[in-house]
Structures are given as C-alpha cells and as structure tokens.
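User: I'm new to structure prediction. If I give you an amino acid sequence, what do you actually give back? Let's try with this one:
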Amino acid sequence: MPVPTRVGILLFDDVEVLDVCGPFEVFSVANRVALRTAPAPFEVVTLGAGPALTVTARGGLRIGADRLLADAPPLDVALVPGGVTARIEDDEAVLAWIRRAAGTAEVVAAVCTGAFPLARAGLLDGRTATTHWEDLAELRERFPAVTVVDDVRYLDSGTVATSAGVSAGIDLALHLVARFADEPLAVATARQMDYPWTSAPEGAVR
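Assistant: Good question. You get back a string of structure tokens that encode the predicted 3D arrangement of the chain. For your 206 residues, that looks like this:
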C-alpha cells in the first residue's frame, strides 16, 4: 500500500482561519475523493506552536492541534499559514522547526503572511516569493534578498512554495495535491469543493 504524503500545518495564536482551514479542507476532500477508488494519499497533522495544544485564531475561533511542535513527526510537506505572524517570526523554536523541515521535507509552503517566518528563517533568500497584497511592500523592504512578486496566486520553486492571501492557500493546496498525487485528483477535489481552480494559470507557478 502506498505511504501517504504527510502534511504538517502549523497553528499559532492569531493565525488566519482560512489559511489553516482552506488547505486542511483541500487535503481532507482529496482523501475522500481518492478513497472512492484508492487509498487516501494524504495524512494531515496539525502542530501547535505552543505552549498549549489549543490556539485562538483571528476572530476568536479556537482550534486544537494534534501535537505540539516539539513532538512534530517527519513531514513531506510543512505548511506555515499566515495571520499575525510577529510572535512566531521571533520564536526560535518555530524558526528552528522551519529550518529542519527545509532539510527533510520535500517542500516547505507558506500561505499569505506565512512568508514572513519563512523569510526570517532564511528560506526565501535568493528565491521568488509572494504574499498577501497588503504585505508585499513590507516583505520587499524587510527582506531585500527575496524577489517579491504580485499578481500570482501561488509560486512553487520545488523545495519552497508561497501563496498570495487567505483564499489563495486553497489554490496552493490544490497545486500540492496535483504535485504529490496527480492532477486529475486535484481537479476532482476542486470540483467537489465547488471551487474554481486552474492547474497552471498564466504566471501562477515560477
């Protein structure tokens, strides 16, 4: 039986709800669709930045993590969502986890302002990246070694991927379904979610 791709999604206080729940839904629905004919291709684990398993997302939604970051298992995909990221940008445990993931996972991905902790960890130096449209100028100013672009939903450089804001995390997650499973499953997942998705829109992947 094929080993599922393990996806780890970071949780922290003031995380953006859809940055977490959008990609989670994509991988969950992809599993449901795949199970009609084959084993589930993804295993998703949520990882709390600590100190508690439960975090309070933006808007007050409380979300429980499966594990604390210190107990994170090996991952194929490490996903850092956005939100108010100032605290985790200065959290050495989070930055160390991102750097470790960069050495062991096949891809480290960021949704929205999740690009900032990736940049703090040094993963975006010399790369092309994107983030929420409101934060493009700040990303350029704070991290001049990063080539920041706009007008794209997501970018995938192979070992690092980033997306634009909030709902663009769904596009990135569907792209990762296509990359780690296959494109027909990604298309079927988008259809099941009633979400308009194009596998490679003009300028979407660089």
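You can read the tokens as a compact description of the fold. Here is one thing that stands out. Residues 2 and 39 are 8 Å apart (CA to CA).
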